[in-house]
Write a structure and sequence with these properties.
By secondary structure, the protein is mainly β. It has 2 domains: about 140 residues, Porin; about 150 residues, Porin (Beta Barrel). Helix content is about 15%, strand content about 50%. Strands 13, 14, 15, 22, 23, 24 and 25 form a 7-stranded mixed sheet that branches. Strands 16, 17, 18, 19, 20 and 21 form a 6-stranded antiparallel sheet that branches. A hairpin with a 3-residue loop joins strand 16 and strand 17. It starts with a strand and ends with a helix.
Length: about 375
């Protein structure tokens, strides 16, 4: 999990701080519960932050009843120049029901937003009211995990294939996005984004307008998040991950947005593999690319450049270009074609010369 907190400074500007290094945690106040009190998780991250989850039980289910997060803006190191000083708490009623003796699992990104705090959770495994000290092997999945692991049949006559581009539309504007944490800029992205959605056999194409799009996110050692939102976009998440300890890639895309007809379009896929590049570098692709999130949702990118890890002094590192693999493939083809052309030319010269030789002998 991580937390992004917005606050106003004494100079009336707005700042955000993202808390992702949660290594120094204590659990004072956590209980398994008894006849009078339900189970409770209480976690303290130093003296500045605390996080509490309360559980209750009904006949055949237990509830994640509420989540609370507190932060202390008196800490000038974490909240420099904070205008309002004190301990602030956001309380999020959840009331999420889980069958008794099931373990709740959600590998997808879950987000809770209230007041000035954005909370992100992923790879969640939790079970309250454990029976006989044995954790259950039966999982109860969150809706996002159900969506991302369910394969929806695609009918070619009504839905576009993952590589099909819907009706042509003008190219989107190029936007620049960044994510900051306590150490400065930790994620950079520059790209034009065009969203292609199919719902009820109707294709909708939307260009993201950077000047009306808000962005936030978070960074930590193994994953990074860039979240975009706007007037008709509840959220568009790009989740990056590290693989083999030396490369990064786009692992997950989650989207929820309002369509013209007032309906909500939501898709999640946490099993992607795009924009692969070495750690310490950026990934760049100036040509149009398509990220196929599902049969009903694709993202076209233009003049893309991203670096979700190891950003130094707020600048991109050396880029790995998407055309590199293509160029490596074309070079041997070009060389082979050239050699074939030379061989054909030599053979033609030889045949012509041989013909002239025979002709001269017959005349003699």
């Amino acid at each position: 999990m991580n937390f992004t907190i917005g606050y106003e400074t004494t100079s009336k500007s707005n700042k955000t701080v993202t808390i992702s290094d949660l290594g120094n945690a204590t659990y004072n106040g956590s209980i398994c519960g008894d006849d009078q009190n339900g189970p409770k998780i209480e976690v303290q991250f130093g003296s500045v932050f605390s996080w509490t989850v309360n559980f209750t039980k009904e006949k055949s289910t237990y509830l994640i009843e509420s989540i609370s997060f507190s932060y202390d803006t008196n800490d000038s190191t974490t909240f420099p120049d904070a205008k309002k000083k004190g301990i602030f708490t956001v309380h999020e009623p959840v009331a999420f029901r889980i069958p008794l003796n099931d373990i709740f699992r959600c590998n997808s990104m879950l987000t809770a937003e209230k007041k000035d705090v954005i909370q992100h959770y992923w790879d969640v495994h939790v079970q309250a009211f454990v029976q006989n000290g044995t954790v259950s092997t039966k999982e109860f999945l969150c809706d996002k995990d159900k969506t991302s692991t369910t394969v929806v049949p695609v009918t070619p006559t009504t839905l576009p294939s993952p590589t099909t581009t819907p009706a042509q539309k003008e190219k989107p504007e190029i936007g620049s996005y960044s994510v900051n944490n306590t150490n400065g800029t930790c994620l950079l992205a520059t790209m034009g984004l065009q969203l292609n959605m199919t719902q009820d056999k109707v294709v909708t194409v939307i260009n993201i307008k950077p000047n009306t799009t808000d962005f936030t996110g978070s960074c930590h050692s193994q994953t990074a998040l860039l979240r975009l939102n706007g007037s008709n976009i509840k959220y568009l998440d790009f989740v990056f991950a590290v693989k083999n300890e030396n490369r990064f890639y786009l692992k997950e895309v989650n989207v929820s947005m309002y369509l013209v007809n007032g309906s909500v379009f939501s898709i999640a896929n946490n099993n992607l593999s795009y924009w692969d590049a070495p750690l310490g570098s950026s990934y760049m692709c100036n040509k149009e690319q398509t990220v196929s999130v599902s049969g009903a949702f694709q993202i076209n990118t233009f003049y893309l450049r991203v670096q979700p890890f190891n950003v130094i002094e707020g600048k991109y590192s050396t880029a790995q270009d998407c055309s590199a693999d293509e160029d490596n493939f074309l070079v041997p083809i070009a060389v082979g074609a050239a050699l074939a052309g030379v061989l054909i030319l030599v053979l033609l010269i030889y045949l012509i010369g041989l013909k002239h030789h025979h002709t001269g002998y017959e005349q003699f």
